[in-house]
Sequence to fold (180 residues):
Amino acid sequence: MLTIHRVTGVRRTEHGAVAAGHAVVVEGARIAALGPYDELAAEYGDRARVREWDGVLAPGRHEPDGAAYLEAAYHPDPREAAELGTEPLTGAALSALDMSETRWGGSARRGLQRLLATGTTSLTGPFTRPSVRTAVTRSGLRDRPAALAPGAPADFAVFTADGDCLVTALGGRLVYRRRG
Fold:
């Protein structure tokens, strides 16, 4: 399936200039084309779905401290919020918990959701806990950022003017979308 992501602009590199009026065409898990929206709509519009986002599409964030974020902190389950709060627990608070592999896996999945909500598309390991490694592998996050170029994996995020993440896509799939 072809999808044209129409945005206010496209930033091909992390700190590059924003090309206003540009869009990105995704076919399956890969980027098919980038360029001015009008040109892409003329070429692909009759066979593509158009998604419109009020923000700048850019390579996603890279989290260099991924292992520490997922393996040295516990991300509480929402059902534990009254007892543990909602922020990640570290240090003595983490040591006080009975952490099984199953609990580490759940924590890692919640931590990954937090990362996706910030536009993260890649992170650094190594991940030593088997359940954390499994969660990372299944998430689709890569170990290095993908370029925004034809043929590259369709890993990107769309950010508002304030820097908030609207959408995170991995391999062409929307894995995070801000509500409201």
User: Anything to note?
Assistant: The longest helix spans residues 101-116. The first strand starts at residue 2 and ends at 6.
